[in-house]
Amino acid sequence: MTKIAIRGYHLDAYQHVNNARYLEFLEEARWQYMDNISQEAYTRLNFSFIIVNININYKSSVTTGDTIRITTEVEKIGNSSMTFKQQIFLDGTEKLVCDASVTFVILSNKTGKPMKIEGELKSLLLKGK
Amino acid sequence: MTKIAIRGYHLDAYQHVNNARYLEFLEEARWQYMDNISQEAYTRLNFSFIIVNININYKSSVTTGDTIRITTEVEKIGNSSMTFKQQIFLDGTEKLVCDASVTFVILSNKTGKPMKIEGELKSLLLKGK
Amino acid sequence: MTKIAIRGYHLDAYQHVNNARYLEFLEEARWQYMDNISQEAYTRLNFSFIIVNININYKSSVTTGDTIRITTEVEKIGNSSMTFKQQIFLDGTEKLVCDASVTFVILSNKTGKPMKIEGELKSLLLKGK
Amino acid sequence: MTKIAIRGYHLDAYQHVNNARYLEFLEEARWQYMDNISQEAYTRLNFSFIIVNININYKSSVTTGDTIRITTEVEKIGNSSMTFKQQIFLDGTEKLVCDASVTFVILSNKTGKPMKIEGELKSLLLKGK
To answer: Complex ipTM, two decimals?
Structure first.
């Protein structure tokens, strides 16, 4: 679970967090989820996450002084793609700010082609931190 | 139609334009589409665009030295919401980089409630620049 | 003191944190410094921070996997302006990544004019969190 | 000379362009200045621009509906470093929004060491577009 305090530089002319900034927040949460994968494992398994789709619903707005809480869960796992379900809540409440499905392909850096999600890679992706 | 030259600061660790940055590119293209609405009309009609959903497919990547071309069209128009279909191409080609559906609600700044899309507002939103 | 883990979306084409992103990191650290000022005090004292100068030295680069540590200290305090000295270190070491002097004017939101830094305002600005 | 229309996503909680965003605007202007350097010349000369200092004065603010005009000139050129003087004006006027000195070192990608600014490299850097 990731917490981010909303600051003035996250807002736009509407005084709300800008739609693009939420994608950085979601990416930050996925990096934290992936913090269980060591640098050694990244180097050895030698793969990249290639985002193929993001479908995000903006449900309510947040502003300076708010803190958000982001949850990241595996929604679906296929042969070489997987989908995270990510939800952003106003911290301390169950009020939903955004929910998103983020779909990736796992690419082998060696071949440049999609990589089968199995074995160690699969268990690392499923576990999260 | 909007053209943007891809620069080093648009890229991320993968040497491709970051997923969040594309949402800024799409927003830029919508601002250009909306440039036909004068400041006078904004003030008089007194509304805000509230994004409720973005569904974006990342099809191919672009990097420094590339230029992208963004098209923005009305995909659907409802009572108080509308959806833009936006496509990003590698300029000079028909190669699709991203396509996205971006759905808004039009909010009245006076009442804070959704506003009926009709009359002058509707024709401004449909026309674009 | 602020800590930020460097992620792929912070980097640019050179695989280093982009020069503009550091200004967001410094702003984040100033927000954390200012977290001792309650919403109640902000509303009552009713002021804005207006940056007038940033002088930043980029000393060494950081990349994905690194964590940075940011320190924020008052360098100078004048009648209605103040300067923060901010330093970014590679966390766990004394290696300097950036140092910056950031100068503000304190503006009264009521009058739109510079506000004298004295009394409660001064002690809040000097103390930090 | 570079022109940028200010949009809602460039602003922050103060309804002005955020201090960090200006550094992206300045970088964009430098890329446009450097557009005279062909991809072929970049590859052949094989160098990187490493920013070592930015000293920026924020003089007046701009907001949605404004357009800015950025000028980029060589302020100083040394053995292996150079400084650009960049100024941002409210377009259509002589009103100064920002001025900045941006100092680089030119690094050889082959040796990882500073490169002498002379010959073809020097004339490309001095000329701009």
So the answer is: 0.95
